[in-house]
TrEMBL record:
Its main location: cytoplasm. Pathway: Isoprenoid biosynthesis; isopentenyl diphosphate biosynthesis via mevalonate pathway; isopentenyl diphosphate from (R)-mevalonate: step 1/3. It comes from Gopherus evgoodei (Goodes thornscrub tortoise). GO terms for cellular component: cytosol; peroxisome. Keywords: ATP-binding, Cholesterol biosynthesis, Cholesterol metabolism, Cytoplasm, Kinase, Lipid biosynthesis, Lipid metabolism, Magnesium, Metal-binding, Nucleotide-binding, Peroxisome, Steroid biosynthesis, Steroid metabolism, Sterol biosynthesis, Sterol metabolism, Transferase. Belongs to the GHMP kinase family. Mevalonate kinase subfamily. GO terms for biological process: cholesterol biosynthetic process; isopentenyl diphosphate biosynthetic process, mevalonate pathway; negative regulation of inflammatory response. This is Mevalonate kinase. Catalyzes the phosphorylation of mevalonate to mevalonate 5-phosphate, a key step in isoprenoid and cholesterol biosynthesis. Residues 301-347 form the GHMP kinase C-terminal domain. InterPro entries: GHMP_kinase_C_dom, GHMP_kinase_C_sf, GHMP_kinase_N_dom, GHMP_knse_ATP-bd_CS, Mev_gal_kin, Ribosomal_Su5_D2-typ_SF, Ribsml_uS5_D2-typ_fold_subgr. SUPFAM superfamilies: GHMP Kinase, C-terminal domain, Ribosomal protein S5 domain 2-like. The gene is MVK.
Amino acid sequence: MLAEPLTLSAPGKAILHGEHAVVYGKAALAVALNLRTFLQIKPSNNGKVLICLPNIGTSATWETFRLRTLLTLFSDGLDESKSPSPEQMDALKEFAGITTELSATESLGTLAFLYLYLSISAKYGQIPSVEIVAWSELPTGTGLGSSAAYCVCLAAALLTACGAIGCPVEAEKSVVRWPEEEMDLINRWAFRGEQVIHGKPSGVDNSVATWGGVLRFQSGKFTSLKRVPTLRILLTNTKVSRSTKILVASVKDKILKFPAIMNPVLASIDAISHECESVLEAMAESPSQEYYPVLEELFDVNQHHLNVIGAGHSSLDNVCRVTATHGLHSKLTGAGGGGCAITLLRPDIDPLMVEAARQDLNACGFECWETSIGAPGICLHSLSSLKAEVLRIFNSV
Ligand SMILES: Nc1ncnc2c1ncn2[C@@H]1O[C@H](COP(=O)(O)OP(=O)(O)OP(=O)(O)O)[C@@H](O)[C@H]1O
Ligand SMILES: C[C@@](O)(CCO)CC(=O)[O-]
Ligand SMILES: [Mg+2]
């Protein structure tokens, strides 16, 4: 049970290959990024539950006794085959006074919280009065798995608060993790939160936010790649807003409309993920520059495929065009339709070339930053190990 404030964090992700196709049982390769979502949960004794979400400018407070009136609707417990029902979502929207479109940003963050709070309370006993602040280094809604990092943090915090999983704090350690079976439980609950935000998630994003590293994910199962080469990646945020839920639904419409045309494209994306995995394994075994042209070509082919299935956007085409003028190869990452692209940076690349590409991308109004891959998954932090920026945010809300 929660006696002290806890601070935890989970990473965002980039999908190297397999976005959208993974929703149809194809393989995806996902990497955890060193950009994280942080969540602080504090016990309180005012009989209220407070959630403060500065990234989306939302905060809300509810009396615990009012939340209790909704518990019967959530008493079906954790059954993975069951997604959040329309009746549950309608009841939550009414309770939270949400009248806007379901895809409105603030609504989904709040609804995912209420859904997890009530489902976890119904299953394990009501979570006491708490105050929660969640803040992310990730831009939200841009393809970097912000929703999954948020849901993984929420699931871990709420499961810990009601005692369903332990609180593995050790005085001398700055960062600690839960045992494997508890991590698995966190991941399964986070998936339910993702269902609220995405509609029909594959589970790849919450898995990588839970476990970190580099994962191959297919049909609900993942394998962590044991050895991965160091890859340098430039992330570019086109700042074109989009919603994963809407994109996944529109790709589905296209597949239903032209199955004979779209299914071979999904099969080809699957083959690209497998080919990329083999190349990464070979690179980890014997690092050599000769593999980079293959990785670059796979990026190019997959970017075309993603345009074919309807996940592209002119801003993403622009990123590809601008980086190509500097000899660099890019593709969209995540759901597409705007949001972020990833560009592969060869280790031998001239730093001036990268700088020139960044300047051209900035001139298009895009924002770029370099990142490393394979960050750790969900963890608990000691307060003294938190960066000043994170502490400042938690102290200021
Ligand atoms: N830090 C956060 N605080 C509150 N809500 C968040 C936060 N991060 C994400 N969300 C919720 O997730 C939504 C964005 O999810 P969405 O799946 O569309 O984008 P993404 O996860 O960033 O991209 P992708 O799914 O393509 O990787 C936001 O609209 C918001 O409701
Ligand atoms: C577009 C998608 O494939 C990846 C979003 O990061 C959706 C999903 O797998 O849930
Ligand atoms: Mg998402």
